[in-house]
Amino acid sequence: MVVSTQTKNAGQRQVKVVGLESTIVRFCGDSGDGMQLAGTQLTNTSAIFGNDVSTLPDFPSEIRAPVGTLAGVSGFQLAFGSKKLRTPGDQVDVLVAMNPAALKTNIEDLNADGTLIVNEDAFTGGNLAKAGYENNPLETGELDKYHVFRIPIDKLNTEACKDSGLTGRTVGRCKNFFALGVVYWLYGRPMEPTLDWISAKFGTKPAVAEANTKTLKAGYYYGETTEIFTVQYTVAPAKIEAGRYRKLTGNEAMALGLIAAAKLANKSLFYGTYPITPASDILHELARHKNYDVRTFQAEDEIAAMASVVGAAFAGAFAATGTSGPGLALKSEAIGLGIMTELPMVIINVQRGGPSTGLPTKTEQADLGQAIWGRNGEAPMCVLAPQSPGDCFDIAIEAFRIAVDYMTPVMVLSDGYLANGAEPWKIPDVSSLPKLTATHPQAGNDFHPYQRDAKLARPWAIPGTTGLQHRIGGLEKSDIIGDVCYDPKNHEHMIRTRREKIDKIAESIPPLEVFGETTGELLLLGWGGTYGAITAAVENAQAKGLSVSSAHLRHLDPMPKNTGEVLSRFKKVLIPELNMGQLLMLIRAHFLVDAIGFNKIQGKPFMICEIENKIEEILGNKPR
Amino acid sequence: MVVSTQTKNAGQRQVKVVGLESTIVRFCGDSGDGMQLAGTQLTNTSAIFGNDVSTLPDFPSEIRAPVGTLAGVSGFQLAFGSKKLRTPGDQVDVLVAMNPAALKTNIEDLNADGTLIVNEDAFTGGNLAKAGYENNPLETGELDKYHVFRIPIDKLNTEACKDSGLTGRTVGRCKNFFALGVVYWLYGRPMEPTLDWISAKFGTKPAVAEANTKTLKAGYYYGETTEIFTVQYTVAPAKIEAGRYRKLTGNEAMALGLIAAAKLANKSLFYGTYPITPASDILHELARHKNYDVRTFQAEDEIAAMASVVGAAFAGAFAATGTSGPGLALKSEAIGLGIMTELPMVIINVQRGGPSTGLPTKTEQADLGQAIWGRNGEAPMCVLAPQSPGDCFDIAIEAFRIAVDYMTPVMVLSDGYLANGAEPWKIPDVSSLPKLTATHPQAGNDFHPYQRDAKLARPWAIPGTTGLQHRIGGLEKSDIIGDVCYDPKNHEHMIRTRREKIDKIAESIPPLEVFGETTGELLLLGWGGTYGAITAAVENAQAKGLSVSSAHLRHLDPMPKNTGEVLSRFKKVLIPELNMGQLLMLIRAHFLVDAIGFNKIQGKPFMICEIENKIEEILGNKPR
Amino acid sequence: MCADTATVQLKAKDFGSDQDVRWCPGCGDYAILSQVKKVLSTLGVSRENTVFVSGIGCSSRFPYYMNTYGFHSIHGRAPAVATGVKVANPELDVWVVTGDGDALSIGGNHFLHAIRRNLNINILLFNNRIYGLTKGQYSPTSPFGKRTKSSPFGSVDYPLYPLSVAIGAEATFVARTIDVNVKHLAYVLERAARHKGISFVEIYQNCNIFNDGSFLYATGKDTKNDTTLYLEDNKPLVFGGDTKKGIRLNGMNPEIVELGGDVTEDDLLFHDEKLAEPSLAYLLSRMHHPEFPEPMGVFRCVERPTYEGMLVQQIDDAKKSDADASLERLFNGGDTWDVK
Amino acid sequence: MCADTATVQLKAKDFGSDQDVRWCPGCGDYAILSQVKKVLSTLGVSRENTVFVSGIGCSSRFPYYMNTYGFHSIHGRAPAVATGVKVANPELDVWVVTGDGDALSIGGNHFLHAIRRNLNINILLFNNRIYGLTKGQYSPTSPFGKRTKSSPFGSVDYPLYPLSVAIGAEATFVARTIDVNVKHLAYVLERAARHKGISFVEIYQNCNIFNDGSFLYATGKDTKNDTTLYLEDNKPLVFGGDTKKGIRLNGMNPEIVELGGDVTEDDLLFHDEKLAEPSLAYLLSRMHHPEFPEPMGVFRCVERPTYEGMLVQQIDDAKKSDADASLERLFNGGDTWDVK
Ligand SMILES: Cc1ncc(C[n+]2csc(CCOP(=O)(O)OP(=O)(O)O)c2C)c(N)n1
Ligand SMILES: Cc1ncc(C[n+]2csc(CCOP(=O)(O)OP(=O)(O)O)c2C)c(N)n1
Ligand code: SF4
Ligand code: SF4
Ligand SMILES: [Mg+2]
Ligand SMILES: [Mg+2]
Q: Is residue B132 within 8 angstroms of chain A, CB to CB?
């Protein structure tokens, strides 16, 4: 949304300056072109500048496909604005395409009158062929509906770095900063944060530092001086809660949350895992923080990872694991052991496109059924889902709170979108964090491993405690005593008790909140990473006067106690999910509500407009 | 039900002869006492005699617990009658208890005026203590409500075998046949079938054969001559469809069904598995039939078993695996691969008590959720469940029919009760079996691995076929072509197509049939091994004039097309399950019917009376 | 492994739990159970610092019978569960009890990796060469051609040899003993307990129900002298009772020679537990009945820093180099900016 | 393995599929791909009887690039998938392509068991000592102390040596080669293909993105003569380029000696691929850089009936002894009775 227009002098000429409420930029190019870095720099600069930001990297599925091919395209999208940003945005305002393949795979997402910046040097015959273009799209007129800026970035970058003494290849690696410079000029961003970053990063390699500095500036001045740019944009700082901020991806936030939970309870954190996209970064982040008594165990497979977590929980650690769909499938059996032994542990599943190996680098929400049902026998477990990258921090703490208070494994369903997406995170005051306490019984007269407290939790008696020696395992246990027990009535009692315990968790969680009016025509019920898109869409529809509200489940099993009641206050319920309707199924079964599913299974998050359109399809686009 | 009473001469005395419609006998004793054998002999004899029979062995959970302990008790129950028997019965009419531990664990199940035959020699101080009896129950009067027959079986058996030249231990092992002899007399059964069996079995050990023969007869004549027995029972032959019969357990039937399916399609059968109770016997049965080109592979674990099945299916075999709950959990990931590659295969899950290791030798139906949801991503698969031991044969063939016709993995949910239970199986005419055909394309111009036919099945092109070389795998496939494909729209199309294909299977399955009137107050909807108990209970309630019917799902995903319609014709729907309500959940979600769950989770099948009581609880016990 | 933390030395029976032992009468597991208790008493360890972890199988019921902490986990995963226990609390003495199926069939991968990491735990493999609990299918250590319920025509699987596998996976302590030779059993168990790092012990165990007599050659009065060879460190490899025989190296192949005449003990292969390279231990692990006497005792015993030791060391070092590991510091790491 | 069924001998390029090859430019996988194609052409096998099965990893994309049947399965399970393929149709030539993580981490168990069963397939392990596809965590073959994303303070896991593991698991054919030495690569691949039974080949493979130069010692012009030793059957173990060196046995330990003067080739250890017992192969597998030159070539090659061969034999025998295996017969087995 344009919020202002004025004119200013840029170098020797006049340019129009358009003030925007928010904007969406995407850098795309070959995997080796440094697009992730360019995007990150623009994000950081914008955040420091005071904008709200939201980002979404899009990695190619192959490690490093041949240069110039479609499979090798890497992208990084960010939105920044003067208002709250709930997603990295639908359609892009400014697209930077470093080669034909990048253009081909991304041009669809550019707004009809959007700005396209291309590195025209890369539009060679060979590259065009690799991208599957028969003719050069810069020449065919097919891009006419966009504002196209053809810049010979390769040449200009080489020129800028010519005195650096670096090899051609190293010089070539700087060109992302030329493009970044152009974008900086376009949005009137300060270069300092990036210049600082360059000198910190390349302190020991002054030639590289200098080359990057020069080409960044060259890009910036190219924007300033060249006549081709006649418009510049500004995006004012957002009204953001005061405080210190930091940008976190969902995976980083999850890692910090795990560390915080353990530290708050004065415990060591054990993290047993096996690398898998898109969960591995949690391990990478945790492995760096050994000084926080973080014990990472890179296991031989997911089964070992899960089994080690069960063992570590038995021994008294705050134990967690992280994986993605196929890994969760492998963990099923050992999770059942965690449930039978009623030990506290946290299982993070960063969902990706399935089934089977599926679309490993893409996002999806199709493991809810697996989380709830994916084990043999009646094996109930608490299931949570964070709703934004930053919420991963809070949900990790919440997961450990429940795990320890109720002595149960807790599953956290993150997804690829949250895991890699980033948003500003207001650094919390440590004293404001939940208090977590883990208590271990000491020897007394009446210790019984399966005697329960009011929450139905059994005692967490840990090896090393004199006098509390006991044996646990995967066979059915006798009530209270905890010996192996085949008694039919006892089995039924234990099965029902384990379920009841999970249901009881609902007593400790906040009620489901409604965004918008608490009664009306349509409620959108969501869960997990779709929060931003759903909320933004509902906000827009509300602004149009439609009778629509939304509610978002962070707790999926058990659900907040008032869930059924909230649903009953709306005529229709729409459940948007990145799957074929898994929450839909649960809601229909639990509440016998004829909810409607809105399903997208494309390895991509919802666009705000998709949900908006769906709302209008249901309600009509006229306000009530 | 008593159907006649008369008097006859037995030896030198007169006994009353009571004709029964059906009766239930249970042998119980130490694991080493040969109870399974005694039960099997009575079963066979009764079957040959023309009764309908139904059996249920009850194994102890430990391999061989110390002699005389509660944990070591082994039991075998059978019902035989002149009417159709749908279960091995609820309460027992005649209980044979070979020691105090057996008495203790089984006496609860004896009818109030039932017959109790005990081996009084075993009621020694030591054995009583091991069974946890403070006083000898034969002396305390606590058994007064039963017809108790104390027989010194040890002594009489020793006496009968005294000239055999066998060791005391071997002689001791014959005592089950003494007990069997007594029961044979009690029911006026012929001894010939067992005598034939003895001479066939112990042909090479004439001393053992003779000892067993003598003690069997001694038991029989003991009944005939001793004054303690004043009543004898007869159970007339049942009106059974003419034909040749054989007794089969569910596991045996499943094995024969698998072999038959492969043979009908002229294929070799590949069975890759890892032993696990209660599924191992399928492997044992299959391994014997190598002459039918049965290739059994005892894998290193369930994951390998499942992966080998995927490989064998790729190579063109009729490939199947069998396991139980924990094993199924381990197979989850590889099953997903089977789904993504759309290869035909059959996965048998013989459900047992869970969660985790649970109650390994007990029955349960708690893996339905796992069968349907227990994989990462949207991974739909056809799920079937046999309804009786004999139906395991038909379901195995049905599973392969669907697998091959629709190119999909098919899951079969058997359970411990069906697996070990046995019933007479009418040997089918081979020409009456379904025709199975597996077709493999040959080289042509237009082979594409993911091009579908009308049923949405892709071609089963197998290695070795000239010109059809292609590559498959777990990554998302492009429509028709089958190359690796990350295209968002293609992903959605493939996800929906895989689901649609499973839904289409409904076009090839029979409609859901209603037992009883097709409309009314109450419908009982069941699935799997509860068929017998549900049907018998509904039959009884109908006889009382209650407005109740039942329907049984053999196909759980997809369900028969008329399922919703059938449900809608009843005011109430009751879903009895040996779990916490898993079908209930599906039915509620699919049809928004406020069905009620009736759940038993005790490691045991439903008793007919339990369901009958529940029906009366809902409908009142007055006919409408 | 062993820790002398107990103030009062406990007796063997103090290590027994109140549970009825539920193995078949005559099962070899009983002897092992009683020797383990005895050895724990000898070592003077405490019950509360001792943890037994097992998988699933007859042997895996072991933890129930010990008055220590115990975990009867799931099939094949005991080494992984034990890894979690040990990394979470390296002070605990952790024992894994497993069977030939549990360790080498479904659990093969965890077995390999626990060994190569040199986790400081003791793994006792009760090798009865059969799946006992599931009533008698052939296992990965069953001899070729074995007829069982699942191989009625004889198994076509070549067996694995647990010691060869362990040595191939970089084990630092490897030993073999047998249920009925209780003295030797106790000796080997004690050696295993005292070894710091992974200790792997294969125990020949008779399953008298499903595989009776599998080790008769090695236990029978008449045969055992010729079929087993008891290893002693730095001693020549001799066996055979009255007619003393020994093992001599012929190139890379061992051969049996009779002592006396030309051949003296000096000509024989000498055992050395501590060789840095495991080739000798491997060669010994290849001596199988009936071609060779089967070595009993400690094949290899070398020192190497333990997995959990180094893992915790890294943490201690990190803590030392950064004493203020506060959450504030953690949260404020990375690029931050202030909004006013 | 090799079958001469093709009527027209195909060229190397005939074995290439129409798919774009998607490895990083410079990746060692390219060289292996082209040698595999070449060897298939040399062997004269047909495309339709050849199946490549892989797990997950960079290396595991291999099947896409071959114009044969191919299965890109799931992580670690390729040997198990291949077992199904081979048992279902023993006529097929089955190759497994796997990585160090795929084969030895998650897939360790299937690796062990496919090997011990002596399934007649070829397993090619592309060992780049790193998890490539997941962007650079340490693998079970990464050297101790390796710093990676998941081990920023250095890994505390001792590596596994693939050849030692394979030999510990009863492998009948074991070899090692290296991506850049294409002639040797082709030679070893051909030997593997011709071996009947399990053929295990470790291929040192450079991952120039996440672990560049890992094998520089073995490939660098200046160093390779001293750091590698090319095995030849029945020949002494010599290496070292100009200054000829050799390996001599000292007890059970290998030692490096310079040839010339007192030491002649006859004093050296002689290679013998066909020794019935694998102790020599094992000892060779223990020679690691930098202490020793690393042997390249065929370590062991012995004959033993194959798993699927024996399995099918049992079926054939059963069929022969019972020609009428009709369903009628099957159904009527056991005790039957007639109801009229
Ligand atoms: C996941 C899983 N698969 C299979 C089983 C069945 N099972 C239990 S123990 C066992 C094998 C036992 O053999 P072994 O480890 O040698 O122990 P033993 O009983 O001989 O002591 C099997 C196959 C199981 N419990 N869990
Ligand atoms: C069940 C499962 N767990 C984890 C992964 C993630 N993953 C894919 S490949 C790989 C390791 C690859 O390493 P390697 O086998 O050495 O192959 P390379 O890429 O180095 O060739 C991992 C951890 C997965 N795909 N599936
Ligand atoms: S089955 Fe064998 S191993 Fe198991 S308890 Fe009995 S004798 Fe021991
Ligand atoms: S990441 Fe390494 S192993 Fe993977 S393709 Fe690139 S260079 Fe090859
Ligand atoms: Mg065993
Ligand atoms: Mg690798």
A: no
Ligand 5 centre from C126 Cα, in Å? 7
Minimum CA–CA partner of A327 in chain D: D75
Residues contacting residue C297 through CB under 8 Å, at least 6 positions apart: C175, C176, C177, C184, C188, C230, C231, C232
Tens-of-pLDDT digits for all 340 residues of chain D?
Answer: 334 444 578 999 999 999 888 898 899 999 999 999 999 999 999 999 999 999 999 999 999 999 999 999 999 999 999 999 999 999 999 999 999 999 999 999 999 999 999 999 999 999 999 999 999 999 999 999 999 999 999 999 999 999 999 999 999 999 999 999 999 999 999 999 999 999 999 999 999 999 999 999 999 999 999 999 999 999 999 999 888 999 999 989 999 999 988 899 999 999 999 999 999 999 999 999 999 999 999 999 999 999 999 999 999 999 999 878 899 999 999 888 998 8
Domain that holds residue A568: 514-619
Among chain C residues, CA nearest to B290 = C153
Residues of C in contact with D156 (CB under 8 A): 117, 307, 310-311, 314
CB pair distance less than 8 Å for D134 and A276: yes
CATH code for the domain defined by D12-231+271-308: 3.40.50.970
User: Which of D207, B486, D62 shows the shortest CA–CA distance to A72?
Assistant: B486
Question: Which residues does a 6 A CB cutoff place in the pocket of ligand 3?
Answer: B 63-64; C 23-24, 27, 29, 58, 128, 132, 207-210
**What is the pLDDT at residue C2?**
39
- Among A406, A432, A458, where does a domain finish? A432
DSSP string, B26-66: EEEEEGGG-HHHHHHHHHHHHHHHT-EEEEEEE--SSSSPP
Nearest-Cα distance to chain A for D73, in Å, is: 9
Instruction: Give C142 Cα–ligand 5 centroid separation in angstroms.
Output: 9
Which residue from C minimizes the CA distance to A465?
C48
Q: How far apart are CA B326 and CA B324, in angstroms?
A: 6
Shared-domain flag, residues A79 and A220: yes
**Residue C137 Cβ contacting ligand 1 at under 6 Å:** no
Which residue has 């290296």 as its token pair?
Answer: D178
Tell whether ligand 1 has an atom less than 6 A from the beta carbon of residue C119: no
Q: Which residues of A touch C337 (CB under 8 A)?
A: 47-48, 244-246
* Tokens matching residue B169: 């231990």
What are the chain A neighbours of B301 within 8 Å (beta carbons)? none
Rounded to the nearest integer, the mean pLDDT of chain B is 95
Q: Are residues B30 and B153 in the same domain?
A: yes
CA C260 vs. chain centroid, Å, equals 36
Q: What is the CA radius of gyration of chain C?
A: 22
Phi, psi for residue A129 in degrees, rounded to 5: -65, -45
pLDDT at res. D302: 98
- CA of C316 to nearest chain D CA: how many angstroms apart? 12
Query: Chain A closest CA to D150's CA: distance in Å?
Result: 5
- Ligand 4: residues within 6 Å at CB? A 63-64; D 23-24, 27, 29, 58, 128, 132, 207-210
- Based on the number of CB atoms within 10 Å of its own CB, is B429 exposed (0-12), middle (13-18) or buried (19 or more)? exposed
Q: Where in chain C is the domain with CATH 3.40.50.970?
A: 12-231+271-308
Task: Report chain A residues whose CB lies below 8 A from the CB of B367.
Answer: 376-377
DSSP string, D225-289: HHHEEE--TTSB-EE-TTS-EEEEEETTEEEEEESBTTB-GGGSPBP-TT-SSTHHHHHHHT--T
Q: Are residues A261 and A227 in the same domain?
A: no
State the total domains in chain B. Answer: 3
Residue nearest to atom 4 of ligand 1 (CA): B276
Write the residue in C112, C158, C161 that is nearest to D117 by C-beta: C158
Whichever domain contains B535, its CATH number is 3.40.50.920
Which CATH number do you get for residue B270?
3.40.50.970
| Domain final residue pick, A385, A407, A432 | A432
